[in-house]
Amino acid sequence: MLAQAVANLGLGALGAQTFAAASCGAMRHFTTASELKRKLTELIPGQQERLKALKKTNGSKSLGEVTVDQAIGGMRGIPGMLWETSLLDPEEGIRFRGLSIPELQEKLPGAVPGGQPIPEGLLWLLLTGEIPTAEQARSVTEELRARSHLPYHVFKTLEALPQDAHPMTQLTVGVMALQPGSRFAAAYARGTHKSRYWESVYEDSMDLIAKLPQLAASIYRRTYRAGQYIPPSHDLDWAANLAHMMGYEDPGCHEMMRMYQTIHSDHEGGNVSAHATHLVGSALSDPYLSYAAGMNGLAGPLHGLANQEVLRWVKELTAKLGPNPDKDAVRKYVQDTLASGKVVPGYGHAVLRKTDPRYTAQRAFAQQYMPDYPLFKLTSHLYEVVPEVLGKTGKIKNPWPNVDAHSGVLLQYYGINEENYYTVLFGVSRALGVLSQNIWSRALGLPIERPKSMTMESLEKRFAAAPEAAK
Ligand SMILES: CC(C)(COP(=O)(O)OP(=O)(O)OC[C@H]1O[C@@H](n2cnc3c(N)ncnc32)[C@H](O)[C@@H]1OP(=O)(O)O)[C@@H](O)C(=O)NCCC(=O)NCCS
């Protein structure tokens, strides 16, 4: 039955061949001297010199003190990592290589005139720090298309899972099924010189980014559409192809997917999925292992899974209060959520202190494409009430909405109703940021991560012995 479904995908012969090869531990590989890789080869020596000079001139300077509260409190605010692809300002939000989301929307090439940027252009920007021309962005689309083949054994691996396994579990398992094809792991085993690690990490990262849309769409189709897979289009860009393989052809949905995949890609290095990828990559685990670690973090409800939780919470709200609840009823509902010891999903942030610009970008999209959609209206209504209630608690540092408060509305509008799947779409996007940084981490020769931990006893003794010095 699976063989038939994969044959329907148009990969029959190819799939069977690849399956045979994969059974012997081998995978078909697209090897490239792509425009993007050539560009990186040019840029890397200069950045290596820059890092050397930074260390020489400023290596011994202090970045500030660390309090006991910070050590206990999830290391918030402790600067302790190099992350080149993006930087988060608490007030202003994220900047990708120095560009805000509106600037990305203005400057990056799109698929339609005046439309949303294509994520391939963002990938070029994240990797090179430069805004690509339309041709350069197209070269990335082509490179990814050439690498996109998903081996048959990946379908077989997914089929071994219960159909109702959480889509994020299926994503990680699918990624791990691709890991035997890691070119970095093979290069390391061959004894490749460390100055060349980045090259095979690049190959793995691009292979993985290329295969993720079909992997993600296959998870969607097997879980919610009885395994009726849809073959990739050879004309569509990376994000639109993902929507197409999931079964969505509305041009508005394709534009939404381009925006969604662009804005979820990167949020500097300290968030759970980025940091987990970075940490595991620092042990020279290959990009498949590192990204899978990040995805297991993204699957947590305080992080990426919050987008699923938002929908669940909103559905419960409408079931209880009806589709158009008044402000007092919503206020009471939020208060009840807090009183029951739960968080209000989609609100708050560990770093941001204002409305997330990723929320604002999605709101602007909704205003353009679905101004009268009732769920959008309800989301706007929540925006007017929730921050006020959270703010009154006095303890929540940021009562404003984050990215997850809005993404589900856009997906629901186009008919993607299965909220348990939403974090997979977030995860596909996140690959662009965390794998770009991972390539740079190897190119810059960043070392294995090893922060210091402490016991309560060691802290107590330290400050009991020298209370004054502790201030
Ligand atoms: C994102 C989040 C984990 C950040 O946590 P944080 O850095 O600890 O946030 P704060 O410093 O403001 O937390 C202080 C207190 O307010 C609570 N708080 C923060 N956001 C809250 C929310 N949306 N609803 C209820 N309580 C919240 C915290 O749980 C914490 O309570 P505690 O002292 O009893 O443990 C948190 O805001 C949250 O859980 N939000 C909801 C989940 C979500 O949307 N996640 C996606 C983030 S992009």
Q: Could you characterize what this model shows?
A:
By secondary structure, the protein is mostly helical. It is built from 21 helices and two strands. A two-stranded antiparallel ribbon has the order 1-2. Helix 12 packs antiparallel against helix 17. The radius of gyration is 23 Å and the shape is globular. About 3% of the residues have low confidence. The chain binds coenzyme A. Coenzyme A binds next to loops. This is Citrate synthase. InterPro entries: Citrate_synth-like_lrg_a-sub (IPR016142), Citrate_synth-like_sm_a-sub (IPR016143), Citrate_synthase (IPR002020), Citrate_synthase_AS (IPR019810), Citrate_synthase_euk (IPR010109), Citrate_synthase_sf (IPR036969).
Q: What order do the helices and strands come in, and which of them pair?
A:
Layout (H helix, E strand, L loop, with lengths): L1 H22 L11 H24 L9 H5 L13 E4 L3 E4 L4 H7 L11 H10 L5 H13 L5 H8 L7 H12 L4 H7 L7 H28 L13 H9 L4 H13 L8 H11 L4 H12 L7 H16 L5 H13 L17 H13 L4 H19 L11 H10 L8 H22 L12 H10 L6
Antiparallel strand pairs: 1-2
The site of coenzyme A has 20 residues, from loops.
